[in-house]
Amino acid sequence: MAKIIIFGVQDFASLAHFYLKHDSAHETVAFSVNAEYLPAGGTFEGLPVVSFEEIERTYPPAEVQFFAPMSHRQMNRLRAQVYQQIKEKGYRLISYVSSKATVFPDT
Hints:
The protein has 107 residues and is α/β, with parallel strands linked by helices. It has a single domain (3-88), classed as Rossmann fold, CATH 3.40.50. The mean pLDDT is 93. The chain has a five-stranded mixed β-sheet with strand order 3-4-2-1-5, with helices on one face. 29% of the residues lie in helices and 21% in strands. It is globular, with a radius of gyration of 14 Å.
């Protein structure tokens, strides 16, 4: 089990939080966004939202991993950009596949 920070505070981040909470051994500890997108009140889904620019101060890379769910809009370009920024800060990223997913054998 890993402690997870989810990148984002919109619908996909909320859905990711739900899935990780109910269908994984991971524990979401916070959300993170770029400073200009910090929500009023500083929380989302009952958890702290931390500025991505300063995330290492509160959550060092050795203690947490990231999950970066993306919407379909400009997904590949944004995903690559966010992935690179997270990796440059020294964080590992997790993948998630639902336990309810149908996986067909290679035939």
